[in-house]
Design a protein that fits this description.
Blueprint: H1 5-18, H2 23-30, H3 34-41, H4 49-59, H5 63-67, H6 75-87, H7 91-107
Length: 108
Amino acid sequence: MEMDYRDIGVRIRKARKAAGMSQERLAEAVGVGTTHISHIETGKVLPSMSVFISLLNVLQISADEVVAGNVERSEIQLMKEVQEILEDCTPEQRRKLIWIMRSMKEVL
């Protein structure tokens, strides 16, 4: 299976935009130039492993999301989604949602 660098770049760009970051801000956070981020996002270059890991950490995404866009979500991503759902709930809503999850788990 051959990797398409453009697809990787597109996924990184989507994650950057979802995080509300400019290329400049991402470049600064990762420790590279803005042009390098642009080249990564357009698929002109593949980031080094250290830059790739920094991108994942800064954008809070998993490698499988970037490298294989159709791979099922990682456990980290799934737990992050659960946390996002629960974080703006009232304590009572959290208790009810946890009860619902436990009940659904028993059914599965």
